[in-house]
Here is the input.
Amino acid sequence: MKKQYLQQIIPLAVFAIFAFAYLAITAQDLFYVVQSQDYFVYDSLYFDRVASYPGWVAPYAGSFLTQFAYHPLLGIGLFVLLLTALAWIAQAVWRMPRQLSALTLVPSVLVMAFVVGWDYGLFGTRHYGNLFSPIVGLILATLLTAVSVRLKNRWIRYAWSMAVIILFYPFLGVYALMAAVMPLMLRFDKLIVLLTLVPLAFVPYIEAQWLFPNFNSHFCMIAGLPFRDYFKTPQMWVPLYAAFAVSILLPLSARVAEKMKPRIATAISCAVVVAAVALVPILRFDDSNFKTLLAVEHAYGVGNDNRVLQLCTAQQRPIRSIVVYRNIELWKRGELLDKMFQYTWETDTIKSVNLRMNTYITGARAFQHYTFWNFSYRWAMERMVMYKPSYADIQIMAKNVVYNHETDLANKYLSQLDNTLFYKDWAHAQRRLLSLETLQADSAYMTHRQIILVPPGAIDNTEYCEYMLLKYFTNLYALTPKRAELCLAACMIMHKEDEFWQIVLAEEKANPGTKLPRHVQEAALLYALKKQNARLLAQIKLMVGPQGTVCQQFERNQDLLTRLLTTPTMSDVNTLSALCPGTYWNYYFNDSRKGVIFD
Here is the structure.
């Protein structure tokens, strides 16, 4: 007896250890970001919102559990615990023979494959409890079948199946339908099967229409499942559907195993488990930009901004969101005009079956860092209205209205966060800024006063966050040191030479003798050379310092730059890339021409 017990428990323990280790190494950022895109509070409004769709119990419970992924290792631990519990419950309910005990792990492994297969679509989801709702639903479905398994009379079992379909569908959705189907695999009775499948085909549709008028009844058969852009991402659902199929077939496998030799049954079950485990790394969304973006969002979410620059600069061929974040962090450190072109500008597009624009993913946070409170609020609100509230968007909106000193609206959002488990401390810290005296002494507010120097309505909000920011900063308004830095950077990125000269001359007049930042020196020499004015070029060399590193490098390559300005060839472009990497010159002739800057 003890040996049999160990044979059943050991596979569960091994799975739990390896699953936790794998997710702890590869998915901590994923768990945190999925949590930040979710939302759970104890109030009637939230409950009514979640319960307005069939199958709401699993999402509600899943959302409660998802909040614990604020501490990723805690979230991963709970996730693995439930995956292991599902396998253990399945063993007990179906009384699986010990040679098939490992087979009960397959649904858990497939659910894990489903989670690690998420891509950029997690930034736009209408579903609550994405991490935990599938596993909660499968556990509830399996527990419901435990009643049917112990009923001996066929008609009593049938009555119970009807009760599950009719009474539990509004609460469990697709998981109630699974609970009605799974016992059919244990005792195959043609009449009972027919009498079960007929109502199963139309009862969900009727109840979805009558009880949930806001729900699209065309999706009644999958109510309760995590959903994003369902039609665009069918392949992402394969592991989850496979988990459901295996769960339904587990009782049938127990019957088949009775006719097989124990060793053969053990070999087959182990082979199936190994194949399922192999699918996890294969189906994982292994995109380096996505992993970097998750790590960046995690760092911003926990206030570890110092880590962001390191993450962004290490990314080769970044997507535009990462470039924007990289420049934000350089600017915050006062290093934008000295270092921004030392990193690659050869950008990549979002590689995903679930396409999301860079602006949609990061626009609200990027605008907030540049203290565009209203635009940041607009993008966060738009995402919330289109999908659902999330901790991340409510934080962004709360901070924006706090800095706009909209006290009543700020209290509304901060009160929502007061009711959460892990964000109440953040809300409490923000409340101190509701004091106007404290707000005016805050560094972000003082930065805002230096940047936003235009009359209301002078900024046009376009579809593209990065383009709008660059366009805004190339328009000349009163300059402050913080604003001048951004204006010069924008002019160089956009090749706005006239505006560049006006800002440089204004800065030189305001601060005579101040050394120009490295990239400004490079741009000034190039633009002067482009004008083909020897006197102007000589003046610029004096301004930047003829003995300086930048001027010396410019003189060594002046003939090459002249050819590139007049008769450019690909050979000269490649030569410049080799001789002058990390310079504005390389950006001007090479990187800025490799594709669309604004995405």
The radius of gyration is 30 Å. The mean pLDDT is 88. The longest helix spans residues 2-26. The chain has 32 helices and no strands.
